[in-house]
Write a sequence for this structure.
């Protein structure tokens, strides 16, 4: 039995590994090659130009504007989403206090979990269409219709370059919070209730219980959430494509790298340059994930 173990493992893994190499690794390698060519999507033998596309990237103001937008998304999206999700998860799991010696969530917590998670079942394109009506520039829009009650003139949310990207961030947060409420709720459910009960007996309030009990014991989950949300910040193409003015406008105020890759490939037929942007996006994402895991690493607390 022991001698047949390794052939069994190899045979079991052969098909998934082959599929992964074919549909994941091979396209990555092809993208790296195309990034060093001037391919325009037509020629079967594109000209090899080395690192010229990457040198062009370094001098491309639109590329750097998109990178700056990703930097803002990397700060705002994880911070706001995690803060809101942690708050709601805490309320849904232990916010109701001790009842009969058992820590419980607020009244109706099961219903609230469903409400918070609902945006996750909607496709991102549908969410974009919904928020087109929310952000509509006249009083037919949800927000401007509400502001009209107070006599406030309509706000051009997506046509104002100073607030358009923040409007995009708000949509991404709204779409993401529900998943992380569920994720953090699962993490809190794994924390022994007697720890909360002991903290209550010691006179700890809800604030102290949150910061001194919940946060340290939930650190690994927070670390994973930060990485996932950072990757989501690099992958904001769909919502920008649907919701923004003129695909990343106005005047590039909401453009992201995914948008510029799409534009260069399918509008300008510069597939080689678009591939170079894709390679840059790949390394930015990998670097962010590695740095986040390194900086946020800490000793695991044993329960």
């Amino acid at each position: 039995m022991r001698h047949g173990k390794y052939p069994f493992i190899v045979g079991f893994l052969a098909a998934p590994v082959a599929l992964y190499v074919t549909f994941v690794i091979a396209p990555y390698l092809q993208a790296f090659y195309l990034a060093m060519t001037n391919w325009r999507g037509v020629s079967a033998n594109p000209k090899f130009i080395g690192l010229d596309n990457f040198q062009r990237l370094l001098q491309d103001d639109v590329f750097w504007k998109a990178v700056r937008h990703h930097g803002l998304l990397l700060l705002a999206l994880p911070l706001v989403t995690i803060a809101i999700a942690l708050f709601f998860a805490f309320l849904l799991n232990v916010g109701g206090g001790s009842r009969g010696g058992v820590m419980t969530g607020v009244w109706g917590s099961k219903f609230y979990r469903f409400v918070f998670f609902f945006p996750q079942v909607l496709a991102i394109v549908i969410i974009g269409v919904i928020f087109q009506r929310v952000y509509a520039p006249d009083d037919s829009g949800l927000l401007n219709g509400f502001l009209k009650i107070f006599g406030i003139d309509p706000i051009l949310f997506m046509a104002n370059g100073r607030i358009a990207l923040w409007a995009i961030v708000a949509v991404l947060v709204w779409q993401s919070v529900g998943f992380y409420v569920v994720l953090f709720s699962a993490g809190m459910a794994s924390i022994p209730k007697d720890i909360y009960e002991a903290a209550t007996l010691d006179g700890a309030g809800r604030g102290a219980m949150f910061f001194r009990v919940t946060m340290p014991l939930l650190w690994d989950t927070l670390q994973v959430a930060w990485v996932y949300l950072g990757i989501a910040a690099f992958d904001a193409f769909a919502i920008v494509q649907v919701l923004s003015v003129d695909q990343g406008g106005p005047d590039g105020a909401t453009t992201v790298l995914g948008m510029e890759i799409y534009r260069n490939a399918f509008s300008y037929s510069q597939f080689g340059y678009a591939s170079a942007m894709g390679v840059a996006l790949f390394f930015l994402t990998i670097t962010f994930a590695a740095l986040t895991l390194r900086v946020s690493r800490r000793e695991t607390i044993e329960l």
Observations:
- The chain has a mean pLDDT of 83.
- Residues 61-93 form the longest helix (33 residues).
- DSSP finds 13 helices and two strands in the chain.
- The two ends are 38 Å apart (CA to CA).
